[in-house]
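Entry:
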Amino acid sequence: MEKSLKNVLVVSFGFLLLFTAYGGLQNLQSSLHSEEGLGVVALGTLYGTVLLSSMLLPAVLIQRCGCKWTIAASMCGYVAFSLGNFYASWYTLIPTSVLLGLGAAPLWAAQCTYLTTMGNTHAEKAGKLGRDVVSQYFGIFFLIFQSSGVWGNLMSSLVFGQTPTQGSGILAILLIAIFLEPIQDVQQKSQGEKKSPPFWSTLLSTFKLFRDKRLCLLTLLPLYSGLQQGFLSGEYTRSYTTCALGIQFVGYVMICFSATNSLCSALYGKISQYTGRIALYTLGAATQLSCLIALLLWRPHPGQLAVFFVFSSLWGMADAVWQTQNNALYGVLFDKNKEAAFANYRLWEALGFVIAFGYSTFLCVSVKLYILVGVLSVTMVAYGAVEYVESKSSIKPLSLAQTSQVEEEEIHTEM
């Protein structure tokens, strides 16, 4: 097995172990800790801290510690949150929610930076296009990572109300610490020794990147990703599945979503080199738009059991596009500022979650669906504008010498 693929698998299985336990805990917060709204407050604290963390920490930690140790250290916040749930109170759950929130943005930014750098390095050695290898690596990652939703929801469904153990989180940290190759060494070899940028310059790099108009247009992609994930995990499971079928079916519906998402992630990562990313974005947008319109018209009934799973499967197909292609797109377009770009990505995705979480209690389902339709439409227009700009910039005019050479060749051809 080639070294780069081995490292991709180490990262992927590390996240699988970590999120198999955490996913179940997150989904059960409001049920496990309903007294005085502790579970809801913990989730609000968590996502609020993720927003703050996204703005300040990822670029600094990755620059100072490297991707490997940023991932390992950030995972400790998830283990702390698991421990806080075993002795749940205001004095344990809120501080551990803050720790998790501080670690979440650096964790994901480091993971994306690592896979992007690995993909570009391998592509250069193999004589392939960087964007194709990067997309393939993200496909492999989300194939393995999204299956955590299958195992986590399966445990929650079969043993409802039991909190998952933190043991898998500790195994994830050990896996990363022992087997993951530090990619900072690879970067130093390829770029040579460079003087590290000043601390304040690194700290503010997340905001400086907004001078790039492409990033301003692309912020809607992660924002919409957070909104649609929040709708599925909150509104679809509660207002459709639970109301019509009962809470015992929620886990199985989410298993269907995770399984479809996982398989489609691998498929999209592989075929993107043949179809191009525009075709996949069109597929994802068309699939999810169809689901949103159908949900507006559908009146769920217990006798329509298969329909509930069809919707979650189609949603998984669309979400796989956002997860694989969004991360690959950010890595390709902002290759020289990967850390800051992925920090921005997590910032806007977390904001999408916060907005979905914030208006969930006072807006009806149909209004939320109309919001998603509107945001999706604007998002695809903005994405199309970025692709248009990229296509124009890739067509470079001939230099004066090249123009003269072409003219000479035409003259000789006519003679």
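The chain has a mean pLDDT of 84.
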